[in-house]
Design brief:
The chain is built from four helices and two strands, in the order αββααα. The protein is mainly α. It has a two-stranded antiparallel ribbon with strand order 1-2. Helix 2 packs antiparallel against helix 4. The protein is 58% helix and 11% strand.
Length: 81
């Protein structure tokens, strides 16, 4: 994400910290749940994105998206692993 894109997000979320490879933002529980559900759908849903298209469409490898999903699940539901 470039600085121009980041500056457009400032009005939408509270940005706690941002540098070249990490951004910390404040989300409501509903926003985090929506991200969780969207990631779960693209990774595991009935119409999950095929492996060969995942990186192109989502911007990260499926394994990275699944790792993010596990972290979010741990926050929301106390589930790890």
């Amino acid at each position: 994400m470039n600085l121009e894109s980041l500056s457009r997000c400032v009005d939408l979320w509270v940005i706690i910290m941002a540098n070249a490879d990490r951004i910390a933002i404040e989300l409501t529980l509903a926003e985090l749940l929506a991200i969780n559900n969207a990631l779960n759908e693209v990774c595991n849903g009935a119409n999950a994105i095929p492996e060969q298209e995942f990186q192109t469409l989502i911007g990260v490898e499926r394994s990275e998206a699944q790792g993010t999903l596990r972290k979010i699940n741990a926050l929301l539901f106390g589930v790890s692993g």
